[in-house]
Amino acid sequence: MLPMVVAGGLSIALSFAFGITAFKEEGTLAAALMQIGGGSAFALMVPVLAGFIAFSIADRPGLTPGLIGGMIATSINAGFLGGIIAGFIAGYAAKLLSSKVKLPQSMEALKPILIIPLFASLITGLLMIYVVGKPVAGIMSGLTSWLANMGTANAVLLGAILGGMMCTDMGGPVNKVAYAFGVGLLSSQTYAPMAAIMAAGMVPPLAMGVATLVARRKFNKGQQEGVKRRWYWGCALSPKGQFHLLHVTQCVFCRAVS
C-alpha cells in the first residue's frame, strides 16, 4: 500500500496548496489533484492490500479474488479490517481450489485464468457481502467514531502508545503494527493517529544524529560521517524508507493536527 499512500498523500497535499477547499470547485487543477489522490490512489489502498495478501498465500491465482474482495470491503465500508479478512479468504480459497480441483490435461490450462479466479472471487465476494461485511463494517464505524470523538487526554494517550510502538524496535514487527494501524485508518479519513505515528517515527534517526554531534568522541569516524544520512532520514525518511515528513505534511493539511 505504501506507494499508494505516498502518491495519494502528495497529490492531496498539492491540492491543498491551492487552498483547503479549492478542490471543491470543479474543473480546477486542485480538483484534479484531489481526484488523483483521494479519489483514486487512496481508493486503491484496501483493494491492493487485500490483493497482495491473497497473492502471498496463493500466488497469481489469488490476486484477482483478493482485489475484488478488497474492493467489496471498500464499497461496504468495511475498511482495512475488511480488506485484511478479504485477502485471507481469497488467498486460501484460491489455494484450496488450486490443490483440490482436478481437471483433464486438456483443460488444465483453464485453472489459473478461469476456474480459480472465478470461483475464488465468488466465494470471497459472497462471504464478504453476506457474512463478514456487515459485522466488520460495524466495527470500523465504531472505531472511526471513537477516534473522531476522542477527548484530548485519550488522544494524547493513544498517540503516546502508537508513538512508543513506532520507536520501540526501529522498523521491526512492533513498529509495523502501529504503522499498519495508522495507514489503515487513512482509508476512513481518520488522520490524527497517523500524524502521531509519523512524528514519533522521526525521533530515533534525529536522536542518532544529535548524539553524534553532542558526543562525537563516543562515535568512530564512520559513525560520525553517517550523521548526514541520519539527519536526512529524520527529516524525510525512516531507516526503513517510509516518507515520514510527507505523511506529516498530509496530516497537517488535512487538519488532523492543529
What does this structure look like?
There is one protein chain. This protein has 258 residues and is an all-alpha fold. The chain folds into two domains: 144 residues, no CATH class; 109 residues, no CATH class. Helix content is 74%, strand content 0%. It has 13 helices and no strands. The protein is globular and about 70 Å long. It starts with a helix and ends in a 5-residue tail after the last helix. The C terminus is likely disordered.
Q: Choose one word for the global shape.
A: globular
Give the H and E element order.
HHHHHHHHHHHHH
Helix and strand composition category: mainly alpha
Quick one: how many beta strands?
0
- Radius of gyration, in Å, reads 21 Å
Average pLDDT for all residues: 80
The major β-sheet equals:
none
What percentage of amino acids are in beta strands?
under 5%
Low-confidence stretches: 237-258
Instruction: Tell me roughly what share of residues is in helical segments.
Output: over 70%
Domain module tally: 2
Number of contiguous helices: 13
Straight-line N-to-C gap: 27 Å
